[in-house]
């Protein structure tokens, strides 16, 4: 009797689904999408997208650098409204990019503790964007969003509908799994 070993291609999680890329299986943007968006001119769109998720209880094992994709020229980081850090584009690590990523070490300030994160983006000294992320780690909102608000009733028109769970600042909660958010 001869045994035949079959090699099966396993993608990361072992379920034969490839999870890398800029969008998830439902075409929702992942942090990598923020990188590509950030390479446009700020006159077209001002972009500020962290390449990490902010939630209480998340382990910071191996989290020594926080990367943020933005086409701003300066960022300020606040926890509980206290300034905990500032960063300029990391032109040393990303010299080939028109709008380099921002790379900064997470704050270890015990006086500030854990809390809501706010990142303000500046261009030529003017604040042009601000994004906030809840430090609670709690699913707060449930949103139903259609790609199109009008359809042509010709039998061939379709749209995508996204169900999204967010924190109180409308930041997507990527690991939401609690049915209580629907109550």
Explained architecture:
The chain is mostly beta strands and 183 residues long. The chain has a domain of 106 residues: Immunoglobulins (Immunoglobulin-like, Sandwich). The protein contains 1 helix and 9 strands, in the order αβββββββββ. A 4-stranded antiparallel β-sheet has the order 4-3-6-7, with no helix packed on it. A hairpin with a 2-residue loop joins strand 3 and strand 4. The longest helix has 7 residues.
Q: Over all CA atoms, what is the radius of gyration?
A: 20 Å
CATH topology assignment of one domain? Immunoglobulin-like
CATH architecture level-2 label of one domain? Sandwich
Principal-axis shape equals globular
Structural class: mainly beta
Instruction: Note poorly predicted spans.
Output: 1-8
* Largest sheet, spatial ordering of strands: 4-3-6-7
Structure annotation, total helices: 1
Can you write the helix and strand succession as a string? HEEEEEEEEE
